[in-house]
Amino acid sequence: MNVLIKMAEWQKIVALAERVPELEKRIAALEAGRNPPKSKFSCAVCGAAAQVVSEKPHPTFHPFGDKQLTVKCNNPNCGVESTRRFNPSEG
Ligand SMILES: [Zn+2]
Fold first, then answer.
1. With a threshold of 0.70, does the pTM exceed it?
2. Distance 47 CA to ligand 1 centre (A)
3. What is the pLDDT, as a whole number, of residue 22?
4. Contact at 8 Å (CB) between 87 and 69?
5. Which helix or strand (DSSP H or E) is residue 26 part of?
6. Rounded to whole angstroms, how far apart are CA atoms 86 and 58?
7. What distance in angstroms lies between residue 72's CA and the mean position of ligand 1's atoms?
8. CA of 49 to the centre of ligand 1 (A)
9. Pick from 22, 26, 54, 61: CA 20 to 30 A from residue 4's CA?
10. What's the chain's average pLDDT?
11. Cα of 23 to ligand 1 centre, how many Å?
12. What is the pLDDT of residues 33-48, one digit of tens each?
């Protein structure tokens, strides 16, 4: 193999290596789409996953260690916020 062919092969390898971060990003995006993060809360209105946006002691049940969580629907067409009673010891 002459040196010029070796150089051409090497450049192909370098070009592939440079694509790895881009490919990794695309794989991560695909995996995120396939396995959306699990949420233990769901929207009371549309049933989509809801995300905790704030936490404070529950106004009534705080002596038992309960929290009041405000959760916001992840569905951009809904976005309803509601509250949940949550006891960390119950999980
Ligand atoms: Zn919703």
1. no
2. 6
3. 94
4. no
5. helix 3-34
6. 8
7. 8
8. 8
9. 22
10. 88
11. 33
12. 776 555 688 998 999 9
